[in-house]
Amino acid sequence: MKRELAWRGAFVVAFVVASYFLLVPGDRVPSVGSGIPQVDKVEHVASFAVLGFLATRAYPRNPAWGVWLALSLYGAATEWAQRSIPGRDADVLDWAADTVGALTAFGRARRLPTPPS
User: Fold this and answer.
1) Please, which of 8, 27, 80, 102 could form a disulfide with 71 given CB 3.0 to 4.6 Å?
2) Distance (Å, rounded) from C-alpha 58 to C-alpha 72?
3) Taking each helix axis from N to C terminus, what angle separates 39-58 and 64-82, rounded to the nearest 10 degrees?
4) What span, in angstroms and rounded, lies between the C-alpha atoms of 23 and 94?
5) With a threshold of 0.90, does the pTM exceed it?
6) What pLDDT is attached to residue 64?
């Protein structure tokens, strides 16, 4: 149970940080490789892979596909919200990258043993 709470804490922190970067105005968003075309897709995949990994560990009794679906829908919601945030725009390819990132965690979670509670 303590391990599960630690995973949940890590997930909440990662979720809050990711939410900040997904929902702040465009002039406040740092990009690792801003000069590289489409590097933001890599950032989306990596962020959602981390969220997916942490979520599957934090909520081991939930089916991994449910975690994947929730994260995919969250990615879609953040893209929708970006339509009204200055300097941001909704991009279906960003949502696809979010979904792929979460899917990598889903595939990985199927191979990991469920942590003891």
Assistant:
1) 102
2) 17
3) 140
4) 13
5) no
6) 85
Residue with tokens 């406040």: 28
Q: What is the 3-state secondary structure of the chain?
A: CHHHHHHHHHHHHHHHHHHHHHHCCHHHCCCCCCCCCCHHHHHHHHHHHHHHHHHHHHCCCCCHHHHHHHHHHHHHHHHHHHCCCCCCCCCHHHHHHHHHHHHHHHHHHCCCCCCCC
In the chain, where the domains are located = 2-109
Q: Which two tokens stand for residue 35?
A: 């000069």
* Whether the Cβ atoms of residue 68 and residue 52 lie closer than 8 Å to each other: yes
Mean pLDDT of the chain: 87
With tokens 């909440």, the residue in question is 12
Q: What is the mean pLDDT of residues 91-104?
A: 95
Rg (CA), the chain: 15
Angle between the 64-82 and 92-109 helix axes, to the nearest 10 degrees?
A: 160
Asked if 42 and 2 count as a contact pair (C-beta separation under 8 A), the reply is no
